[in-house]
Every structure is written in C-alpha cells, then in structure tokens.
Write a structure and sequence with these properties.
Layout (H helix, E strand, L loop, with lengths): L1 E3 L2 E2 L12 E3 L6 E3 L3 H9 L4 E3 L5 E3 L9 H10 L16 E16 L4 E13 L15 E5 L8 E3 L2 E4 L7 E5 L3 E13 L11 E10 L7 E5 L3 H5 L11 E14 L5 E13 L2 H20 L9 H20 L12 H27 L10 H14 L33 H17 L2 H70 L1
Parallel strand pairs: 7-15
Antiparallel strand pairs: 1-2, 3-4, 5-6, 7-8, 8-13, 9-12, 10-14, 11-13, 12-13, 14-17, 16-17
Length: 513
C-alpha cells in the first residue's frame, strides 16, 4: 500500500518470489520486481565484505578484535593468498633471493668420517609481490611478522648436508610493506668436508657450504649475496673464538651450472677456512716425545762397556711404546692418509731401535775381549787411523785402559837353560842358594832344586806373557768399540737433528700460513 510520496512498506521476506508491487506516486506507476529470497538471505544471514587488494573482496573481522590493526592487516594479506604459487605478477620474471651467512661456532670436526659440524646464522631475503600494503591504511605499520608456513618460501638448501642438526625452530618471518620478506634463523649444519689431516696439529681446513635451489632453475629463482664478499670474508663478529678451531675467513662465490646443458641453476658457495690451535697437542704429544729422544741421546754418555746402557735403552724403548699406545686415540685417523706427526712418532721409535742395536753391538765388542782374536789389521787401519782423522775423534790411545809400564821378567828360553845362560842377578841368586843347599844336601841335590826353580819361573813368565797378550787384545777391541761408539753417536745425532729441523720448518711454515 502507498503511505506517501516516494515511500512504501517493505514486505516480509519469503522463500518464494512475490508478485510485482505497483506504486502510483503523482499518477505515475513504478514497477519493481526482485527475488525476495536473495534479499532475505542478504539481510538476515549474509556476511559483510569489503574490497580487498585489486578489488577482490576480503572478509571483515568481527568481534572484539575487529578494530585491531595487526588483525586487519593479517586478514588483508592472507585473503586470497596462495603460498604454493611463486609470488610474482609477471611469471617470466625470476624471484631474486639474497642470502647471507655468519659462522657462530665450530662444534666438531670428525676426521674419520670427514664431517664438519658448525652453527651458523643464516639470513635470506626476497620480495613477495602479493604481500604489499599501504601503511597509511593500517596506522603506519611498515613491518609485520607472520607464520613462515603461511607464505611462499624458496627451496634453497645446502648441497653438503649429510645429517639433520639440532636447530631451533623459528616459526616467524618479517614482511615489509613493500613485500620484502626477511627469514633469519640459526642452523646447526652437519656437512661433508674433505679434511686434510697431513699437517696435524698445524692443519688448516677449507670446507664449503653451497646454497642453491634444489628444483627451480635460474629462470624461476636466482640467488645473490646480501652483503659484499669483502664484508662476508672478514666478519667474525659473532664467532665464539674460545674453542679448538680458529676462524680465518669466509670466502663467497656466485656460480651457475647446468646438468643437461638446457636448464641452468644458480648457486653461492661459502668456503669456511678454519685453523686448529696446536698448543694442546704440542704439550701432550710433541714435548713428551722430544724429552724421551733427548734422554736417548744422553744415554750415549754412559760407558759402552757398562751393562747399564743396554738396560737404559730398553727402558726408553718400552716407555715410548706405552706413550704411543696412550696417544693413539688422540691422533686423527682416516683411510686415505696418515698425519705427519704419526710418521714422526714411528721414525722416533725406529731411531730408538737403531740406538739400542748400536749399543748392543758396542757392548758385544768390548765384552770378554780376552776370548776374542786380535783386531784385524784392516779394522785397525780403517777405524783407528782413517776414521779418527776424518771425523776428528781424539787420540784413540786415551780410550784404552792404562796398562803397567813394564815387568822385570826373566828372559829365558825354556826348561833346558844352563846356569851360564842366566842373567847376573839370577846367577847370584843361584850361587847363594847353591852354597846353602850344598852345605846340606851336596852338589847333586843342588842341581835338581835349581832346575825346579827355573821351571817354575819359566811358567810364571809364560803366564804373564799370555796375560799381557790378552790385555793387549782387550785394549785393541776397547779402542775399536769406543771409536765406533763415537762415530755411530755422531751419525745418530745428525740424523735426528736433520729430521727434527725438517719437521720444525714444515710445522712453522704451516703455522704461519
């Protein structure tokens, strides 16, 4: 019914369409036909909508959070967003992902399994063209954090990954009003690395961390550095520098490669260069070995004819064997190489064996010389004459024992010597004895006693001559033994010094590089 000009009574909504309603204001008829079912649903139960980005409708927040700026902004950004689609307006444009790396700590270096465990701070940024807004419409909010699993994320991985580390879960990322997404998180990286342990404990390791998109080619995702290579190289601001390893620098390089010569991929390789601090290994490994070798050199000053030198050398050899057993767990072990310090220990033990062998040889020469024959003439000429001159060995006569200067021996020929063949002193002795015996026993008894005395004196003479001969043999072999001991000691000392100086120079060069 008509109530007045331009007014009418709204009929109640129904589920079925109503007939047309005719109004006659001022003699003119107006006819409206509508679907009351749709009008009723819109008035009673339909949600209110507002215009979203690019004219798309967005759901309006209701309730006590309807006026919260971040809630409205979150609804604005997520409405109609599809995280499975690469966020670009022009599909032919690649998404540029800028990455950065900072090493926080070196957790472990497993030489046997060739595995490096590090803790790094990883940062990556890219532009999401679907996540932009006008800050003036949202109380000048220019940055907001959202759940990382609710937006598109690049599939950038580390090629050298061999195990999943215990990294903390960071669920949020920052989004700027211009679409810049900042994904910062710490990562425990367990990667394969070709470790060179030859220079242990003065080794420098170079391990690479290669970041690339596992699936997308360079047409879809490209990679760049967030900072310049010079800034990345010298950045040690967050590194924990109190452990066994020292961070030297981080090298970065951009590269592209192709597998099938059709699709090209982008990658950035970070080379983490670290150096081991050798102080602990120097104190616990090198110094004890050096002390044992010095004691072996000191052992050469024991007399060669003394049996204590052999027992001393054997004790040193046993002690060094126990030392190697103890340090075997400390040395790194790989299937493709042996560290130089391991070779050093083996050579030192070989030198101890050579020293013990030389000592046994010398003791054998100077022991029980009276049972040995005379020293051959060629040995006297080679050892006692030529070698002493060439090697500046002191006079060989000082090495032998001091012999008695002379003995008053009777120079007789044998048991058949007559009275007239004796010396003047012997004749007087015989005459005096004969006078005394002649008075008691007579002339015949005197001759028998004198023959007996001469036989006894001749046997004493032969014994002393044989004793002098044995002492002369002993003196000759003792001289040869002393000279050989000095010669072998000098050769042994030169070999040890040359080996030690060579290792010292190598380790010094490695330490300075």
């Amino acid at each position: 019914m008509v109530r007045g000009r331009g007014s009418y009574r709204k009929p109640a909504p129904r589920a079925v369409p109503l007939p047309s309603v005719r109004f006659t204001p001022g003699g003119k008829e107006m006819r409206f036909s509508t679907l009351w079912t749709a009008l009723g649903v819109g008035l009673l139960g339909g949600p209110a909508t507002s215009s979203g980005p690019c004219g798309s409708p967005t759901r309006k927040a209701t309730g006590r959070f309807s006026n919260a700026t971040l809630v409205r902004l979150s609804d604005y950004l997520t409405d109609g967003y599809r995280k499975g689609v690469r966020p670009v307006q022009n599909w032919s444009q690649s998404t540029m992902v800028a990455i950065d790396l900072m090493v926080y700590a070196i957790l472990s270096v497993d030489e046997k399994n060739q595995v490096l465990t590090t803790y790094v701070w990883y940062r990556q940024q890219w532009t999401d063209e679907f996540l932009v807004w006008n800050p003036e419409d949202f109380d000048n909010v220019t940055q907001v954090s959202v759940l990382a699993n609710s937006i598109w994320m690049p599939d950038i991985l580390i090629n050298e990954f061999v195990d999943v580390g215990k990294s903390p879960e960071i669920p949020y990322v920052y989004i700027g009003f211009n679409g810049l997404v900042q994904n910062y998180k710490p990562i425990q990286v367990v990667t394969a690395c070709s470790l060179n342990i030859y220079n242990f404990p003065f080794d420098v390791q170079n391990c690479s961390l290669t970041f690339q998109s596992w699936l997308h080619t360079i047409k879809d995702i490209n990679i760049s550095l967030l900072r310049s290579p010079e800034e990345v190289k010298g950045d040690k601001s967050v590194f924990m520098n109190q452990g066994e390893w020292e961070l030297l620098h981080i090298l970065s390089k951009y590269n592209t490669f192709s597998i099938d010569e059709q699709d090209y991929y982008a990658e950035i390789k970070f080379n983490v260069v670290i150096r081991r601090r050798p102080l602990f290994y120097t104190v616990s490994l090198l110094l004890p070995s050096i002390f044992l070798m010095v004691m072996d050199i000191v052992g050469f000053y024991l007399p060669p004819d003394s049996g204590e030198r052999v027992s001393f050398k054997i004790t040193l050899l046993l002690g060094y064997s126990v030392f190697l057993i103890i340090v075997s767990d400390t040395l790194p072990a790989t299937a493709i190489g042996t560290p130089l310090i391991g070779v050093y220990f083996v050579v030192c033990m070989a030198l101890l064996v050579v020293s013990l062998t030389e000592t046994v040889l010398i003791v054998r020469l100077v022991h029980k010389q009276d049972l040995q024959p005379h020293v051959p003439d060629w040995v006297k000429w080679l050892v006692l004459e030529k070698a002493t001159v060439l090697l500046c060995v002191q006079n060989q006569h000082r090495f032998g024992p001091v012999l008695p200067k002379g003995r008053d021996l009777l120079h007789v020929k044998g048991n058949g010597v007559s009275m007239g063949q004796c010396s003047h002193h012997s004749s007087e002795v015989k005459v005096d004895a004969g006078n005394r015996l002649g008075a008691a026993l007579g002339t015949r008894g005197c001759e028998a006693i004198m023959d007996s005395l001469l036989a006894e004196i001749a046997s004493i003479r032969q014994f002393l001559e044989k004793l002098d001969e044995h002492r002369e043999i002993a003196r000759e072999w003792l001289q040869v033994g002393y000279v050989l001991d000095v010669i072998l000691f000098r050769v042994y000392l030169m070999a040890m010094l040359a080996y030690s100086v060579t290792l010292g120079i190598l380790w010094s060069v490695w330490q300075c590089t």
